[in-house]
Write a structure and sequence with these properties.
heterodimer, A: mainly alpha, 2 domains, B: mainly alpha, Rna Polymerase Sigma Factor, Chain: A, about 0% strand, globular
Chain lengths: ~200, ~180
């Protein structure tokens, strides 16, 4: 058989490979419209959070400035003001990482204790899953290390969010295995822990 | 309505134009997503994500490529990244099964040619498989494939040639049925 003939036959038979059904146009369009509306809402929340963070950063910066002025010190350390400028983002991210760490630690502890990891975690996971996706769409995801962590968290939180009320033991096992195999908690703690001499929000972020 | 008008109206937030844009491209995008994923739920997810991203990024479209090429670049990126994620998730489950010593299922009967071909395509490296599916199954040109995947046209041709060679090897024992 020549190569041409083989290629022709290959193309014919390959038409059955993953043969698509009729596209569900209307269903997909409705989902697209809904997703876009949700994203718009999330963006609004993110902007509001940033505004809140910027407000706090401004107050802190003002406090630092007033402190310096009243102490009458000259030549202040410019690094302090540099740190304040990134505080808005760090506050939101640190709060998210701390909540996620608390949820996953609690989940793992209860699982190890043999208690059913039930729907009490699902609602929190759903909430955090939204924030995770928001962060994946934010400039925070430009950091390769943080992005990899966020992608792992997205998977784990999605699995917890879908747990049935009584917690299927096999599902729970898959989740705890994923947590351990990818060292998710360790990386999460590393990302949210403070660097020496800095506040909590000044950690690996 | 020509493409430029359509883009301008979508950028301006015209709902009817957004729907027209969707209707013009959805079938081809969904077909490609389904061919790559082999699963309706994933194909829907990839198609939806493609359009959500396209609407968000249309403001950055500079018209240097055709709109359909630009859209297909988003679609292939979404689908291939999505499939990587799914593969990772499935691998974790497989690892868990291995760790638990779960036995594999009973030996199946010798598959027919179509089944063997499907398995052989599935077994191709991801790059080869994507080019093969786009070219030989869905009929994209090498120029379209190159633009969508961000590779040279020559690379697309080379990958297709290697994909076919691997498939030929994988199906060698069926050669008698094909002559």
């Amino acid at each position: 058989m020549t190569d041409d003939r083989f290629d022709r036959l290959l193309r014919e038979v390959a038409q059955d490979y993953h043969r698509p059904p009729t596209p569900p146009r209307e269903e997909m369009w409705r989902a697209i419209v809904a997703t876009r509306a949700t994203r718009r809402q999330r963006r609004d929340v993110w902007r509001a959070t940033l505004r809140w963070g910027v407000g706090i950063a401004a107050v802190l910066a003002l406090g630092v400035a007033i402190g310096r002025f009243s102490a009458g010190r000259g030549g202040a350390d410019s690094a302090t003001s540099d740190r304040s400028s990134g505080l808005a983002y760090q506050l939101a991210a640190a709060q998210y990482l701390t909540r996620t760490e608390a949820l996953l630690t609690g989940f793992r502890t209860e699982t190890r204790a043999g208690e059913p990891a039930a729907s009490q975690f699902a609602a929190q996971a759903r909430d955090l899953l939204g924030t995770t996706r928001l962060m994946l769409d934010s400039p925070a995801a430009a950091d390769v290390r943080l992005r990899a962590l966020l992608e792992d968290l997205e998977l784990v939180l999605a699995q917890i969010a879908q747990l049935p009320a009584r917690g299927n033991p096999e599902d729970v096992q898959v989740i705890t295995h994923a947590l351990e195999q990818r060292s998710v908690l360790l990386r999460l703690r590393s990302a949210s822990s403070p660097a020496p001499g800095l506040g909590r929000t000044q950690g690996a972020l | 309505m020509d493409e430029r008008d359509l883009i301008a109206r979508v950028r301006a937030g015209d709902g009817a134009a957004e729907r027209a844009f969707y209707d013009a491209h959805v079938d081809r995008i969904y077909r490609l997503a389904y061919r790559l994923a082999g699963d309706d739920e994933l194909a829907r997810e990839f198609t939806q994500d493609t359009f959500v991203r396209a609407f968000e990024r249309l403001g950055t479209f500079r018209g240097e490529a055709k709109l359909s090429t630009w859209l297909h670049a988003i679609a292939t990126s979404v689908a291939l990244n999505g499939l990587r994620k799914v593969t990772r998730l499935r691998q974790r489950v497989v690892d868990l099964d291995d760790a638990a010593g779960v036995a594999t299922g009973p030996r199946r009967a010798e598959p027919d040619l179509k089944t063997r071909l499907a398995q052989a395509i599935q077994g191709l490296p991801r790059g080869y498989r994507t080019v093969f599916v786009m070219h030989d199954v869905e009929g994209y040109t090498h120029e379209e494939i190159g633009a969508s995947l961000g590779i040279e046209t020559g690379t697309s041709k080379a990958q297709l040639s290697r994909a076919r060679a691997k498939l030929r090897d994988a199906l060698a024992d069926f050669a008698g049925e094909w002559t």
